[in-house]
């Protein structure tokens, strides 16, 4: 699966098998995160936003510091698995 706008993917470090419980929502198409080869494994997409992309757009607009950390906390209050 491709890292397209609205898809949900596993976050990891540079270690290929380091993904655990952190994830991210692709706010825009991020082709550079896609699998290209065993040497460039990309980031695994495992879901997609089916409703509420307006919420993702709002989160993307939150002011951040120089390290891209929100100045005010952003908290997920609920998630539904379909």
How does the helix and strand content classify structurally? mainly beta
Q: How are the strands of the biggest sheet laid out side by side? A: 2-1-3
Query: Whole-number radius of gyration?
Result: 14 Å
Helix content: under 10%
The shape is: globular
Number of strands: 3
Which regions have little confidence, pLDDT < 50, spanning 5+ residues? Answer: none
Tally of alpha and pi helices = 1
Order of helices and strands: EEEH
Task: Determine the strand fraction and express it as a percent band.
Answer: 5-15%
End-to-end separation: 18 Å
Main beta sheet strand tally, sense and closure:
3 strands, antiparallel
Average of the residue pLDDT scores:
93
Notes on the structure:
The chain is mostly beta strands and 82 residues long. The protein is built from 1 helix and 3 strands, in the order βββα. The protein has one helix at 53-60; strands spanning 7-10, 23-25, 45-48. The chain has a 3-stranded antiparallel beta sheet with strand order 2-1-3, with no helix packed on it. The longest helix is centred in the last third of the chain and has 8 residues, at 53-60. The chain is globular and about 35 Å long. The two termini are 18 Å apart. The model has no long low-confidence stretch (mean pLDDT 93).
State the main characteristics.
single chain; 82 residues; mainly beta; three-stranded antiparallel beta sheet; 1 helix; 10% helix; globular
Summarize the structure.
By secondary structure, this protein is mostly beta strands. It has one helix and three strands, in the order βββα.
């Amino acid at each position: 699966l491709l890292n397209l706008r609205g898809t949900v993917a596993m976050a990891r470090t540079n270690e290929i098998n380091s993904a655990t419980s952190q994830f991210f929502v692709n706010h825009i198409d991020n082709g550079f995160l896609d699998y290209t080869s065993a040497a460039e494994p990309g980031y695994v997409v495992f879901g997609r936003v089916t409703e509420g992309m307006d919420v993702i757009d709002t989160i993307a607009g939150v002011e951040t510091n120089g390290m891209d950390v929100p100045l005010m906390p952003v908290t997920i209050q609920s998630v539904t698995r379909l």
